[in-house]
Amino acid sequence: MDRHALLTNFINNHPEAIGKVVDFDNERDRLYLLDLTAANNELTAEVINNTPLFSSWVNSKLRDNNCRYGVGGYMEHRTIYAFSSHFDTGDEPRRLHLGVDIWGDSGTPIYTPLDGLVHSYQDNNNIGDYGPTIILQHDLDGLTLYSLYGHLSRKSLEGILVGMPVFKDQQIATLGDIDENGQWPPHLHFQLMFDMEGKQGDYPGVCKFSEKEIWQKNIPDPGVILRFPDAVNVR
What value, to the nearest 5°, has the Cα angle with vertex 189 and ends 234 and 36? Predict the structure, then answer.
């Protein structure tokens, strides 16, 4: 059985083991699906290249639709990465997003949805990068799974230690603001990996579109853990 199937089986057999990543009430809170592809003609170069303006655009979508969070991004082919040379790689730039983004206010509490331990952490302090990042390691009945939390506040890295245990629904971080999160509108990049490939405190969250099938083998859909309902603008 491949690792994707093992993960699905674990979740199906142990639903009580899965907690939250952000505070969300299925009965009251609403989600807005943010389209960050070329199909979204509202995301002009002017908006993308001006983080406060980009933040205002995100906030207006949430406010106007009475949504607590914006979500989306798994295997989404995005245009927004053109603003940073961080995503330029020779003949084919990186544009395919590998995680799920949860857009909200800076200071929003972030939780671990699974028991585990701290694998590594780092401040990836480059324009367009993750900024402060925490990676956790989880043992799911013998299946090793890693979870990555990017664009955090710098204070989220205070007091953290490699190997430190964490527990389901434990707050581990808060969302960072523009000045500390890689110069993005406040949001969480949440990503799952089966293999860290020897990396510490960082793992690619964006890849070349031509390599999609390769990356999918190691990176399952974070939606299996998030278990969010449909966004309000999805029909």
Answer: 45
